[in-house]
Amino acid sequence: MKTSFPRAALFLAAPFLTSLSLMSVSPAAHATAPAPPDAEQRPHTVTAPHGATREDVYYWLRDDKREDPAMLAYLNAENAYADAMLASLKPVENTLYDEIVGRIQQDDSSVPYRDRGFWYYSRFETGKDYPVHARRADGAGVDALSIQTANAKADFSGEQVMLDVNQLADGKDYYAVGDWDVTRDNRILAYADDTNGRRQYTIRFKNLETGELYPESIPGVSANLVWADDNRTLFYVENDPETLLTVRVKKHVLGTPVADDVLVYEEKDDSFYMGIDRTRDDRYIVIGVGSTVSSETRYAPADNPETFAVLAPRARDVEYDADHYGDRWVIRTNADKATNFKLVTAPSDATSRRQWTDFVPHRDDVYIESYELFDGFTAIEERAEALTRVRVLKRDGSDEFVQADEPAYAMGLAVNSEPDTDWLRYGYTSLTTPATTFEVNTRTGERRQLKQQVVIGYEPSNYVTERVWTTARDGKRIPVSLVYRKGFEKNGTAALLQYGYGSYGASMDPGFSVTNVSLLDRGMVYAIAHIRGGEEMGRAWYDDGKLLNKINTFTDFIDVTDDLVKQGYAAPDRVAAYGGSAGGLLMGAISNMAPEKYRVILSQVPFVDVVTTMLDPSIPLTTNEYDEWGNPEEKRYYDYIVKYSPYDNLDAKAYPAMFVGTGLWDSQVQYWEPAKYVAKLRDLNTGAHPVVFRTNMEAGHGGKSGRFRRYRESAEMYAFMLDQLGLDAATR
């Protein structure tokens, strides 16, 4: 099911360094640094329902409308300070940016997929930031490879452009298309766009035959929409304008006033997300709602979606997601103590869990992540020993696994738009292998490579990926994915960049990034710590890193650092750490718990004021996440969260160098969290290392829009990291 975004937008960023000609940088560049901003303190007491109080003198920096002159003056002062601090590094930033962009094939395109007589794909044009969403009619000699060949030659004859996002984004500081869908008769496109990064979308309509843009639009929605079979009725999800919670499903009939749109379903429980979709066989439209610990699905015939039946009523601690194909539902669920999930089936008219029959049983050592239904087989995406794999379960009960050739990699199901085929598409990547799309014939075993990400100037045989296991202080084995250049010696002198996330059950699998290559070329090591709070080791790995076990996430990350240094992967004074969003919470926690172990902290859109945010149900996403962090209105959760919340645990001590980034329009981690954090950090930090705080005044949680603009932001941050590590710019 499609759902709204949790606070856990994944910042699996791939840090990078680049060829810096003959340049070398040093922290000494900031010997004459200007004085940082000093935010005003205003008395304010935050009181919990159980009576506990906390003083928050920077609470005034919160402004829901983002227009308070004093608040904006402070953010602008911090940006000016960042400009001054980083001015000497501008040549390094420019070089980083140029090299990153130089690695990218600019006129790239996605692998086409066929759906109802058309091949759909997205492509980029040289020098442009945004994609072109297009399609070609199916016919003799038209397939995925022939279309990719034509696109590579810039032969766009026979192509129909649905959306040229470059034109739509022209003149806008931020623009993104979040979702789109085409009517069953292939004539009308509905799409949702966002113009400030707050993920509050507006739906618009386009006639694909005439190019006409319809005058009507539907504001205040999530990026989730589905057409019914009549080619006139669109189902969409309406957001609450303040909390941005997905609260109502409505249907709009093209050509009628939006004010007349009919309410289809309203979710009263504000701890649930909501999404809509069509089933695999296009037979049903489904409404899915889900919290951290519970799920519920409603379904109605797509050709007459008037009445929605509940597939199985929600129950606490029972999660499920369902798809329909043929004459049955196939459901992934943790019901009946299936902690790592199992697959069950149910008849098409099912309305109760009593009608469920086990299909793929639960296993303690294998976590079922997702699945796809086909005529002759079921493809299952699984996770075992912190590695993903694709299992093909055939109709006769036999099964086989898609093979991988590296010790640390990521594999998953790709777009498989047609169920009546023997061919299965899947994606493969690793820290050394660029993203690759394969298709394998499940009957003959034949495998074809449909596309591999082109990385200009990159030779994968020059690099080595490794999976190691470290030991946490409580004895748990923690997997770590590593990559370095061939010839690297574990002699305890190298610089290390360690990434982590560890929340929401989100698994940080090792994938290739063009930005990592130059880091490795300078002898650095890049590591992903698969810490508790993710699901790399199954559902228990997640449960052991949330709620009253959350501190395990932070100590795991620190213990990985200690172990990697002990094993000689890095010098103890040359470790940098990076995380974003909930990974920024991780960065704030380790900075308080073990500041001496990290030379540089890179923290993007960090969730650092956990107590105040989780006490305020008016803030977007708060109520959805009580089962992730705990509701601090209950004293036991309050007392536990206060022990680790980064903002509350800042103290008079020497902190590492820090680069903290945020977006003014962020709807997931509000800008005032990092703003308050930095202001308080400046009061208490006794160390000499710089703290830089950068606010993107035109963007939200994901940074600037466009494929190149975000690299400019990354280049600035990593120029800062280079400077602080004193890394020799010459490649090895």
UniProtKB/TrEMBL annotation:
<keyword id="KW-0645">Protease</keyword>
<dbReference type="InterPro" id="IPR002470">
    <property type="entry name" value="Peptidase_S9A"/>
</dbReference>
<comment type="similarity">
    <text>Belongs to the peptidase S9A family.</text>
</comment>
<keyword id="KW-0720">Serine protease</keyword>
<protein>
    <submittedName>
        <fullName>S9 family peptidase</fullName>
    </submittedName>
</protein>
<dbReference type="InterPro" id="IPR051543">
    <property type="entry name" value="Serine_Peptidase_S9A"/>
</dbReference>
<feature type="domain" description="Peptidase S9 prolyl oligopeptidase catalytic">
    <location>
        <begin position="511"/>
        <end position="726"/>
    </location>
</feature>
<dbReference type="Pfam" id="PF02897">
    <property type="entry name" value="Peptidase_S9_N"/>
</dbReference>
<dbReference type="InterPro" id="IPR001375">
    <property type="entry name" value="Peptidase_S9_cat"/>
</dbReference>
<feature type="domain" description="Peptidase S9A N-terminal">
    <location>
        <begin position="37"/>
        <end position="453"/>
    </location>
</feature>
<dbReference type="InterPro" id="IPR023302">
    <property type="entry name" value="Pept_S9A_N"/>
</dbReference>
<dbReference type="Pfam" id="PF00326">
    <property type="entry name" value="Peptidase_S9"/>
</dbReference>
<keyword id="KW-0732">Signal</keyword>
<keyword id="KW-0378">Hydrolase</keyword>
<feature type="signal peptide">
    <location>
        <begin position="1"/>
        <end position="31"/>
    </location>
</feature>
<dbReference type="InterPro" id="IPR029058">
    <property type="entry name" value="AB_hydrolase_fold"/>
</dbReference>
